[in-house]
Specification:
single chain; alpha+beta; 4-stranded antiparallel sheet; 3-stranded antiparallel sheet; 24 helices
Length: about 625
């Protein structure tokens, strides 16, 4: 099975037309950019432990091919004050770096930082005693962090220098203590130690957005400091992506490096979240860059698409300014890579801009499963005609969920399944098949419901038509039938004589209609349905609308039909007696129709109709008897 890149992607809604916006329109969408200059050389190396828990050993060593140490950076902390963590990091980057930037170059030996109240306010903290103690401890942690370094760095004039020393960056003097010149400090001061001061005076300065820097949490802020140079390089070189490896980011941010993909994704998702939300980056992809033989463990290349905030920053920092030539004349020129703090090696190694490729509709499905966008597009373009890609992806999802330990490279498995056009087994049911099955079931249920409603409509139409014919009997015929029915009911229904006159008349009238019904010319159910669909008068009716049904399903019934429906409502005792009368019916069909009539208004009436339609008379008798017996008990 081939091994393919494990890729990830995260997106946030982009500002409409942000990529095509002018510098002015983009800037209008963001808060004002407040520039802060930070030296580019020592700031790239970590001094603080940004992990919330546990100790981090900051030790970076790089050797040449001949084994000679080319770079060394080690940080050790005071046992008394502890490791410089997130609060100390915020003090260094938000407060101290800004004070250093405000001094200009060359830097003085002493730099005033401010009172503890000032520092608390700069960090967005209340000025209570507890926060002052935290700030004071953070300053001492920064001042006591000991650095052992051997490195080469660029100077602002394009030269190169070497730093090989063990030092702390600065000492701290609190209010009321003595400065090295003997004066009493009227605020907190830092005293720059010479190796650090020399680098600050000679190294290039890169611009950062101070307002944005201050709004970020420590890990996200460190990410911004590290990636900004690469983002500017990508924008300058018209590349779509800025890149940095996960191992390099962890090394230079002093964050814990994870060796499994899931923990790596979770860790970086927290770091990326504020940058996606703010629009600094708009898309992220991960590509594996290590082999199984790599002793350092797995690694991923993290690729970022610069967003409108990054574009606005770059346009602000790279805008043209007047410069003095050797002949004394002023010209307009853009900021150089060095002035933007862009590493020339990063600029030179940046990938050329890639042409835009149309996105396949299923590309997001592959990308969300860890396949790189380019690979996803290539793979989807090569799929066979009629290939059920989503079915294959969902089958792979199921295998990965049930046997996660079996697949070390999930993204590679997806690529393999699609590339080889692997057919899922017959017993696998995809979401599309489930949807088809659900739709078929829904259609069947809808058809059954439609048929049941039609059946109810047909029954009610027949009742209304029979009622109409019964009312058309001559008085002599009606009197003769009614007398005969009264005599039969008085014998078969014990409580008939105790019923009210209205109830007796209703029962007799229903019996009359039952006798008249065989004489009535009624359409078959199929004819009724056909006439309903065509909105034509039903057979035997005098006019359209009386007993007819409109195409919207609403019956056109007269007052007689409404009254007949109301008369069906009898008390439980009367229903039980009617049930006995139904049992004495001469044929099973009449008995079933009588029982069904008694079930009018029951929630399961449609189910009982279906039993009769399908000829399940025994089941109907059994179920209807239970319902009617329960009614009689009530």
């Amino acid at each position: 099975m081939p091994s393919e890149p494990i890729t990830d992607r995260a997106q946030t809604p982009r500002t409409p037309n942000a990529e095509n916006a002018t510098a002015v329109s983009v800037l209008e969408l963001l808060e004002p950019i407040t520039r802060i200059g930070v030296e580019t050389e020592l700031s790239r190396y970590p001094v603080h432990n940004l992990a919330k828990k546990g100790a981090v050993n900051i030790q970076i060593t790089k050797r040449r091919h001949d084994g000679v140490i080319d770079l060394k950076w080690e940080v050790s902390y005071s046992d008394r004050y502890g490791q410089a963590r997130q609060q100390a990091y915020k003090l260094d980057t938000i407060v101290v770096n800004r004070r250093i930037d405000e001094e200009g170059r060359p830097l003085p030996k002493f730099i005033k930082i401010g009172s503890l109240n000032d520092l608390c306010k700069d960090l967005g903290l209340s000025t209570g005693g507890k926060n002052k103690a935290i700030v004071k401890k953070g300053m001492l942690q920064n001042a006591s962090a000991f650095i052992s370094a051997k490195l080469k760095y660029r100077t602002s004039d394009g030269g190169e220098r070497t730093l090989e020393a063990g030092f702390t960056r600065y000492s701290v003097v609190f209010t009321g203590e003595k400065l090295p010149d003997g004066r009493e400090a009227d605020a907190i001061y830092i005293v720059l130690n010479e190796p650090y001061r020399e680098v600050l005076n000679n190294a290039p300065i890169r611009p950062l957005n101070y307002g944005y820097l201050k709004s970020l949490g420590p890990s996200a802020q460190r990410f911004y400091e590290i990636i900004s140079s690469r983002v500017y390089a990508a924008i300058r070189n018209k590349n779509s992506l800025a890149r940095i490896s996960y191992s390099e980011f962890c090394t230079y941010s002093a964050l814990t490096r994870h060796m499994d993909h899931e923990n790596f994704r979770v860790q970086m998702a927290k770091v990326h979240r504020p940058h996606l939300k703010s629009g600094y980056i708009t898309r992220i992809t991960y590509e594996p860059i290590s082999s199984e033989a790599d002793e350092d463990g797995p690694d991923w290349m993290m690729c970022y698409k610069p967003g409108p905030r990054a574009q606005a920053e770059y346009m602000t920092f790279a805008r043209k300014s007047k410069r003095l030539q050797a002949d004394g004349n002023e010209i307009e020129a853009e900021a150089t890579p060095l002035e933007l703090g862009i590493d020339e090696t990063v600029l030179a190694s940046a990938d050329p801009a890639t042409p835009s490729i149309a996105e396949h509709p299923l590309e997001p499905e592959l990308v969300s499963r860890g396949v790189s966008p380019n690979k996803a597009r290539t793979l989807l373009a090569a799929t066979a005609e009629g290939q059920r890609v989503m079915d294959q992806l969902e089958w792979a999802d199921q295998l990965l969920a049930t046997e996660p330990k079996r697949f070390k490279n999930p993204a590679g498995f997806y690529v393999y399944v699609l590339g080889e056009n692997v057919t899922p087994p017959p017993e696998f049911e995809s979401s599309a098949q489930r949807a088809e099955r659900a739709q078929a079931r829904k259609s069947r249920d809808a058809e059954y419901s439609r048929q049941a409603q039609l059946r109810i409509g047909y029954d009610e139409f027949c009742h209304a038509r029979v009622e109409q014919v019964a009312k058309g009997l001559t008085s002599l015929e009606l009197k003769e039938i009614s007398a005969r029915k009264r005599q039969k009911m008085s014998v078969s229904i014990q409580s008939f004589s105790q019923m009210t006159a209205d109830n007796q008349r209703n029962l007799i009238w229903n019996a009359v209609k039952a006798e008249v019904k065989p004489r009535v010319e009624l359409p078959s159910f199929e004819e009724f349905v056909a006439m309903r669909e065509q909105m034509t008068p039903v057979k035997g009716s005098r006019r359209a609308g009386k007993g007819a049904v409109a195409p919207d399903g609403n019956r056109r019934v007269g007052k007689a039909a409404v009254k007949a429906t109301a008369k069906r409502k009898a008390s439980p005792k009367q229903q039980q007696e009617l049930f006995g009368f139904a049992e004495s019916a001469e044929t099973s069909k009449e008995r079933n129709e009588a029982r069904n009539y008694l079930l009018t208004g029951h929630p399961d009436q449609l189910r009982f109709h279906k039993m009769l339609d399908e000829g399940r008379y025994e089941e109907f008798n059994r179920e209807s008897e239970k319902v009617l017996a329960a009614r009689a008990k009530k």
